[in-house]
């Protein structure tokens, strides 16, 4: 990975030591999150689609609607009229698009039994072949539904590690994912907990407008150092 500094381009490397130190600091502050909030792999997959571009609280309402109809299963979603499905998932936003994506996923699962025996690269390629399933959604599914050691890159990850000075914002998804996976022990439990802690931290402190006071990562944060160097200390 590279970072632009004026006209100069310098390499930015995610080191094992840095990543594990950050992980331990986040774990010490927030404790283990035991994600994903879903009772079955299918529920995780549905949640991964519904959470695209919306807050999890909205996803929960949509999932509760489906559970209330006892419809949070493959057969029910495939037989439910699409308009009815759209009405149930309306709280998650973009409900017409997400209805199509959910049905694409359901048809794929129906037509491809035995996915769990595939190796991770093959399974990932198959998931990415589904219309409406992009890298982040595929990796959510791989990690939290199939227990595969895949590091999820989302906007929170980019924001946090960008502010820490460890990555640049415009590096590509696959490049960034590969860098995290190369620096960390290949362990789905570690990856799932790390991603959860990043999300929790991004909501608690590293928000769009960051709350740096009492942030557990402030002492090694480049953004914070720049703020202090510029005489800004109250945030
Ligand atoms: S110090 Fe501020 S910018 Fe840095 S990680 Fe913490 S909240 Fe984010």
TrEMBL record:
Enzyme Commission no: 4.2.99.18
Entry protein name: Endonuclease III
Membrane-spanning intervals of the chain: none
Example of a GO biological process term: base-excision repair
SMART domains, A to Z: ENDO3c
Molecular functions (GO terms): 4 iron, 4 sulfur cluster binding; class I DNA-(apurinic or apyrimidinic site) endonuclease activity; metal ion binding
Domain HhH-GPD: start-end pairs: 50-204
Keywords of the record: 4Fe-4S, Endonuclease, Hydrolase, Iron, Iron-sulfur, Lyase, Metal-binding, Nuclease
Record CDD domains: ENDO3c
Keyword Magnesium: no
